[in-house]
Structure formats: C-alpha cells, structure tokens
Write a structure and sequence with these properties.
The chain is an alpha/beta fold and about 625 residues long. The protein has 2 domains: about 55-75 and about 100-325, P-loop containing nucleotide triphosphate hydrolases (Rossmann fold); about 345-610, no CATH class. About 50% of the residues lie in helices and about 10% in strands. It contains 24 helices and 10 strands. The strands form 2 sheets. It has a 6-stranded mixed β-sheet with strand order 6-7-8-3-9-10, with helices on both faces. A hairpin with a 2-residue loop joins strand 4 and strand 5 (about 95-100). Helix 4 (about 120-130) packs parallel to helix 6, helix 18 (about 440-470) runs antiparallel to helix 19 and helix 21 (about 545-560) packs antiparallel against helix 24 (about 585-610). It starts with a helix and ends in a 5-residue tail after the last helix. Bound molecules: adenosine-5'-triphosphate. Adenosine-5'-triphosphate binds near residues 47, 70 and 227. Adenosine-5'-triphosphate (ATP) binds next to helix 2.
Length: about 625
C-alpha cells in the first residue's frame, strides 16, 4: 500500500459515497453465569448496560480496556450474539429497525480468520462468491470478475494463487489472510462492515495497511464498525467516530478528533508525545489524574456521569429517541428463517468440490490410512496364511483371524473423530453467515470421507487378506466378505462422526470414541460368553458392531463348505450355534441390516448434533 494511500485525509470531502447510519437504543445484554461443579445457574451478569449510540458513515472504532464489552456490543448490533441474553434494545439502520437477520445482509469479519487453508486466496473468494451470489442474477463470468476486482482492490493480486496455509502448507502472510477474510465478506457488496479486532496479531505496518484499506472502503459507501485494542497514532488518526467503553457502559461517543478536547474539559491533559488512544485507556483505567473534582453520582463512574451530562450525549439520545418513537416494539430475535440464495444441489456441488480439493491437498492422512491398510492386510494375510480346514487349528485360526480383522477395521476409524472438529470454526462462521445449509455440509463431508477413506481401502484390504488367508475361493463369498468389512467400517466410522459432531475438543473426542468401541468388543460375543456371564448386560450385544461383523464373516465362510469338511468342523459350528449364529441366508443379511441400522442411527444423531451447534457468540 502506498504512502499516498495511507495518508488519506479524514473528512467529509473524502467521501465518494456514504454508507448507512446505524443506531442502537437501550441495549441491555446479560449472561447467565454458571457456578460450582454442577454448573448451576448463578447470578445474571450485565455486560451491556442500557446503552445507546449512533454509528455514522465512515470509520467507527469501539475502544476500551479488556472485558469492557467492545466485542459484545459489536456482536449484539451485528446480530451475532445469542439473542437469549438480550433483555431489551433495538438496532436501526438508516432509521429502520432491523432484526438479527442483519447478520445475513451485513458483513462480519471475525477476529480469528476462518478460511479454508488448503484453498488459494482466489479459490476462497470464489467459494464465497459461488455460494453468496444468486446464480439467477450473477453469471459465472460475473462472479469471476467480482473476485478479480476484490483481489485488485485489496492488493491481493500477487498472492491470489497462493494457498492460505495449513499445518502442512506454508501459506500467505498474516496481513494477506486478514485481507482475504475481509474480501470474503465484501463479495456481497455489503454497506455495513463489522470487524472484531482487525489488527490483533498483526505487526504495526500490516495493521496500518489493514486500517488504511478499511478507511478506503469507508469512503466508498461502506460504514465500517470495528472493535480495536490500543491502536498506534497513525491508525487512530484514521478513525472518524470513537466509542469508548468501560464495564459495559459508553463513557465517550463522538468524533475521534474531538475526544482529546472533550477529556481536556474534564481536566485530563495529555502529555507531549503520548498516543491519544493510550491516553484514553489510561483515563478509563484510572491511571490518568484529572485536575478537576469529578463527582460520582449514585456510585456511578464519574466518566459515565460526565458523558451522560455532555451536550453531545444529550443530542445523540434525542436523535435515537426520535427514531425509536417512530417504531414500536423491540428487536425481534427469534423465528427468522434463513433464505439461501443457492439451491441444495448447487451448494452440494460447490461444497463437494471443496471437500475433494481439501482431501487431495492434504493427502497425508489418506496416505497414512492407505499405508496402514496395505500393512495390516499383508500382516493378517501372513499371520493366517492359507488356514487349513482341519480341526482344531481351522476353527481356532478362523476365529482369531475374524476377530483380528474386525478389531483392525473398527479401530482404524479412530482418526475420523477429527472430521467435524478440525473445521468447526469455519463451519460455524460460514453456516451462520448463510453460505450453505447444515445438511449440505454434512452430506458433502461424509461423502468425501466415506468413499476414499473407508470404502475403497476396505475393498483393497479384503482383496489382499482374503486370498492370502485361503478363505472360501468362491467369488461370491469374497464379495460377501468385502461387504461385511465395508459395512463394519462404516458402522465404526459413523460412531466416530457422531462423537465428532458432539464435542469440540479432540482429546475429549478420542476418549469418547474409544469407550463404545471397547464396550462393543467386550460384548461382541467372542471374549465373553454372554449366556453364562454378565447376562444382565447381555443386551449390549445388540449394539455391537463386532458381533454383527464377526457373525457375518463366520456365516460367509462356513456355509456351503463340502459335506465331508463340514463334518470335520462340526464342533466349530456347534460353538457358534451356542453364540447364537443363524447360518441361513437371512441370518447373513440380518447382520448386514443391523450394521446399516447402527450406521444410520449414528449418522442421524451426528447430523442432529451438527444442527445443534451454537452459531451465536
Ligand atoms: N458468552 C459469554 N459468556 C460468558 N461471559 C461473557 C460472554 N460474552 C461476554 N462475556 C463477558 O462479558 C465481558 C465483556 O466481554 P467482551 O468480550 O465483550 O469484552 P471486550 O472488551 O471485547 O474484551 P477483550 O478486549 O478482552 O476481547 C467479559 O467479562 C466477558 O467475560
């Protein structure tokens, strides 16, 4: 960004176009504190105390010490904060009350960039354009040209084809990431742009560039509203309006370049070379002394008392009051239905494409999965190489091999718990901003995982191990065996998906997924004879993937063997009859149906859990 660009004058004359004016009236926001080990409801904590204000076209900075409520105010007015905590208050844009669907028409850039690391800057922007611009009104060429314009406007042309970056890929710089996050939101050409601490984590130069960029946008028809921590002077001088917060109250709201004058009237004098932004925070934190005796009425902070008495506050209140009187009723918060601009199938196409790109560009997990598949297939094939049909080793080795196979196929799916956890913040951000439906995300993620990571590797695994073990040579038996292996794997991975959609920490998920697998193993009928022991827990066998997987393998292997051989392995058969295996054709399909049933229930629960994830901040 050139110096010329950075030294833009702050003033009316610089506006090419004016953005909207946002007013908020009597906003009271509370949170319910939880106390004790049982997380009982504690006292309500008021984090925004009946505050009102006007945010005008241009650069609106919300400043204050940590915990003063900057982000909460930003979230409430942008419709991002959980409506359950809003006691009362109304937000108006250009004099008209808005509901929390403002989140779908405005842009909100969160503090932690939520971008898909495996995609390039251009691909991320195109993803946003594809899902957020109505295909009826915007052709592909249109979307492309909008993306190119934004790349140009944000100075991202040079890194347009560079990936954002992941743990494995070194990507763009912090400033470029932030600009890309802003670009994702600018795609819909919103007139209101909210940013939560846009300079946090950036070096001074990059922070300055980001603020200059926002300043430029604010001169072209966008009202930019952001929370910020201790900006340096070159950043501060680009603010038009300043809102200073202290413990959920507004202690100053007005022109940024008039704030020094205001505080000097209250007896606070800035020292030479001090940064005004630091000075204001010192005043709020009580570290700067006033030369005047400021009264604290009713125990209220003297700064708050003085601000409420000030002419600018009185005038603002009057303006807000006038607008409020024109409209009755508060901010509606519930019942809004999100209208997506794209259809279910269109979203499915775009998300599946991204999921496949993701998979191809982070092949490490898939490589590991494939390497383990081949390794274990060879291992089991070598250990149980050409199992004889004589007793007792025929029985013993087949039982051992099937148990080993099912253990391997179930536990190799432990890694799937990261599916919904790794991208959770990206999903929450995109879904809350109306990019796509939850069902589309769910199906695209499941589809992109099941086929390449579960189904195809299982077919390979079965092909290698089956013939090495010398099981029944009939091709149909091989197909039945492969089907059993695949459905067992899908059953196990569905349990992992259910856990993944339920918790947000990987450590917790790993614990929670191992537990049902171990229980299923114990009650699978192989380790414990449930007729004699633990009969009161025997019902658990009905939800054991191990039981159904192993039973189906036994049935496939044992039925249709030549009569003479069957004789020899009669005790083998008897043992399994004791475990309740039904060797009929329906007996085989019963197990497959049970595996499909377990998978379906787990996937439905996973989907419900994904829908229940809180989108609010
Ligand atoms: N969802 C929530 N649950 C519990 N406490 C909350 C929640 N949201 C806000 N708070 C509390 O409200 C107060 C204000 O929080 P907020 O994040 O708005 O402050 P902030 O000024 O943006 O702070 P920081 O600069 O540290 O981000 C804090 O004490 C915070 O702990």
């Amino acid at each position: 960004m050139s110096n010329k660009e950075k030294s833009v004058h702050v003033g009316e004359e610089c506006f090419q176009q004016h953005g909207p004016t946002l007013m908020f009236s009597n906003i009271k926001y509370c949170i319910q504190e939880r106390v004790g080990l049982l997380c009982k409801k504690g006292p309500e904590k008021v984090i925004l105390k009946d505050i009102s204000g006007i945010l005008k076209p241009g650069m609106n900075a919300i400043m204050g010490p940590t915990g003063s409520g900057k982000t909460s105010l930003l979230d409430v007015i942008a419709g991002r904060k959980d409506p359950a905590g809003l006691r009362h208050g109304t937000v108006f844009v250009d004099g008209r009350p808005v509901t929390n669907d403002l989140r779908l028409t405005s842009a909100y850039v969160v503090q932690d960039d939520v971008l898909m690391g495996t995609l390039s800057v251009r691909e991320n922007l195109l993803f946003s354009a594809n899902l957020r611009l109505d295909p009826k009104n915007h052709s592909s060429a249109d979307k492309q040209s909008r993306v190119e314009n934004i790349l140009e406007e944000l100075g991202l042309t040079e890194c347009a084809n560079t990936k954002i970056g992941t743990d494995f890929i070194r990507g763009v710089s912090g400033g470029e990431r932030k600009r890309c996050s802003i670009g994702m939101e600018l795609i819909t050409a919103p007139s209101l742009l909210f940013l939560d601490e846009p300079t946090t984590g950036l070096d001074a130069y990059t922070a300055n560039c980001i603020i200059s960029l926002l300043h430029k946008l604010s001169r072209n028809g966008k009202t930019v509203i952001f929370s910020i921590h201790q900006p340096r002077y070159s950043i501060f001088e680009q603010f038009d309006q300043l809102t200073l917060m202290h413990k959920g109250d507004v202690v100053y709201a007005g022109k940024a370049d008039k704030a020094l004058e205001y505080f000097s009237l209250l007896g606070y004098q800035i020292k030479a070379f001090n940064n005004p932004a630091d000075f204001f925070l010192d005043i709020i934190n009580g570290e700067a002394e006033s030369t005047l005796e400021l009264p604290a009425t009713d125990g209220n902070n003297p700064l708050l008392v003085q601000f409420r008495k000030s002419p600018q506050c009185q005038q603002e209140f009057e303006e807000v009051e006038q607008v409020c009187q024109a409209f009755e009723g508060g901010l509606k918060t519930k019942g809004e239905k999100v209208d997506y601009v794209t259809s279910f199938f269109y979203q499915m196409r775009i998300l599946s494409h991204r999921a496949v790109l993701n998979l191809l560009r982070t092949p490490q997990t898939s490589y590991a999965q494939w390497a383990l598949t081949v390794f274990f297939a060879l291992l089991v094939g070598l250990i149980y190489y050409q199992i004889p049909l004589t007793l007792p080793e025929g029985l013993q080795n087949r039982s051992g091999a099937f148990f080993f196979l099912v253990i391997n196929v179930v536990f190799s799916n432990l890694g799937a718990v990261e599916l919904f956890i790794k991208e959770r913040s990206v999903f929450i951000h995109e879904n809350a901003n109306g990019y796509y439906r939850t069902s589309v995300y769910f199906l695209s993620k499941i589809g992109a995982d099941l086929l390449p990571n579960r189904i195809v590797p299982n077919i390979f695994f079965s092909a290698i191990s089956y013939y090495m073990m010398g099981l029944k040579p009939a091709f149909l038996s091989f197909l039945c065996f492969t089907l059993t292996m695949t459905l067992t794997s899908i059953g196990a991975v569905s349990v992992a998906f259910m856990v993944s959609a339920t918790v947000n920490s990987l450590a917790m998920a790993n614990l929670l997924v191992a537990l049902p697998f171990v229980i299923m193993m114990v009650f699978g009928g192989f380790l414990v004879n449930l007729n004699n022991m633990l009969s009161w827990l025997s019902w658990l066998e009905w939800i054991s993937i191990f039981k159904y997987g192993m039973n189906a393998m036994f049935i496939t292997e044992m039925t249709g063997q030549p009569h003479a051989r069957m004789h020899k392995i009669d005790p083998f058969k008897n043992q399994n009859i004791r475990q309740g295996i039904d060797y009929s054709r329906w007996g085989f399909w019963q197990n497959q149906v049970a595996l499909i049933g377990i998978s379906s229930v787990c996937l439905v629960v996973a989907y419900i859990q994904l829908r229940r994830i809180k989108r609010w901040k």
